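[Automated response] Your request has been received and processed.

Submitted sequence:
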Amino acid sequence: MEYKDYYKTLGVDRSASADDIKKAFRKLAMKYHPDRNKGNKEAEEKFKDVNEAYEVLSDPQKRARYDQLGASYSDWQARGGNTGNFNWNDWATAGRGAQVDMGDLNDLFGGGFSDFFSTIFGGMPVGGRRQTTRTSPRQSYQQKVAITLDEAYRGTTRMFQVENRRIEVKIPAGAKTGTKVRVAGGGPGGNSDLYLVVELLPDPRFSIDGQDLSTEVKIDLFTAVLGGSVNVATLSGNVTLTIPAGTQPGQMIRLAGKGLPDVRHPDQYGNLYVRIKVELPKNLTAKQRELFEKIRNN
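Generated structure:
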């Protein structure tokens, strides 16, 4: 079994903060997301590796255990060790407390968790703490699931294989980072619940603030001065935005109802704010310069 360098997978230092790790995960998850790489097996494997690394490094308990292992492994390598004789048994979770069948969990969470993960973290709950109550022995498990902005706008589904069951989980429109979707009886054995915790991936077209979105469009000087129209991309398709005469650089124009839906009230939408960027002409002809001089002098 080979040691997996989760920090290298995410491209962060070992001293990286939780925010640094989250930013790196979001960037890579967006890059390798299956919806953006249809039929690309290499991207699919990269996506699994990124999710596995984030599963460990985003959890303080798992990260601490992984860092301890890393220090021991590095010290062992420095003494001339090789991957064939490192004593993984010292780090295996088998037989330590309440255990989880990692075979079931690998199926449950889309497959792809490595032997390394199963050996080192097989006895730890996936995606956060295992939750129990005094009144009920029922357990629940959390698992992060990354979705795109388009999926958040329309809603989406994820398929999971749990033992001999296939479960289709609906993620509602309006879900955003932190939204939890409960699947009653969705955990291993059917006697535990699964909570999917949504991670909304960044989108290069829009900034996200709750249900509101913002974007930027470029117009030329003449449109800014005289008025006109410009096409603006929204999550529901392109729309024509009217530009009033005298529009200023940086001015924000609101498109009502063109943001994200409210997850609790899916018929209510946020707004899209369009920031205007005025592009000034750079290379004027002599005739154009003459006309601008006339306007300035008048």
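Summary generated for your ticket: The longest strand covers residues 139-147. The first helix runs from residue 6 to 10.
If you did not submit this request, please reply to this message.
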